[in-house]
Amino acid sequence: MKILAVSDQIIDRLYTSSVREVYPDIQMIIGCGDLPYPYLEFLTTVYNVPLLYVPGNHDPEYSHHPASRVAGGDNVDGEVVYAKGLLVTGLGGCIRYQSHTPNQYSQWEMYLRAYALLPKILLQKLRYRRPLDLFIAHSPPAGIHDDDDPAHQGMRALNFLIRWARPRYFLHGHTIFYRQNLKSHITSYYGCQVVNVYPYRIMNIE
Known about the structure:
By secondary structure, the protein is an alpha/beta fold. It has a single domain, classed as Purple Acid Phosphatase, chain A, domain 2 (4-Layer Sandwich). The protein contains 4 helices and 13 strands. β9 (134-137), α4 and β10 form a beta-alpha-beta unit. It is globular and about 45 Å long.
């Protein structure tokens, strides 16, 4: 399956009606946060494929208001879904560096969110009798593709979830690949391929 994963930055060559000619055969779109929702809506409309996404720290707080969600997409923040033969889950947001801001969490708050996700992952793994394929996040795990400044530290709860759930792929945004601390956009961690998709990646997943 060919996946288009996007995060953090609008790419002009994707935001055009000819994108299907440049990148054909896309079967799923993954949003890792901090992108305008009309941009995500455009991509899923042009390709007419499922869009799974999580919010970033600059995205609105999820609510019943239409402006807080992507039309035609599925917000998998704290959920587990089965789409196109893949078992997918996600946790949005990042480390808290400002007060009273949505989608920002302390390390302990993210652990609480991770613990709430555990029974959902286990139930769906048993139901579909398959491993967890994709974990979608905005923040990187701690010590993997993260940075030292207050806004870009990784979340330790995500390391815990990778070790416990053993997803095949962990996709995230939030940190810029060309920073000196990022020698590669893919890191293997407990058998999981941790991929920094900022600003976009085309991936083939079996």
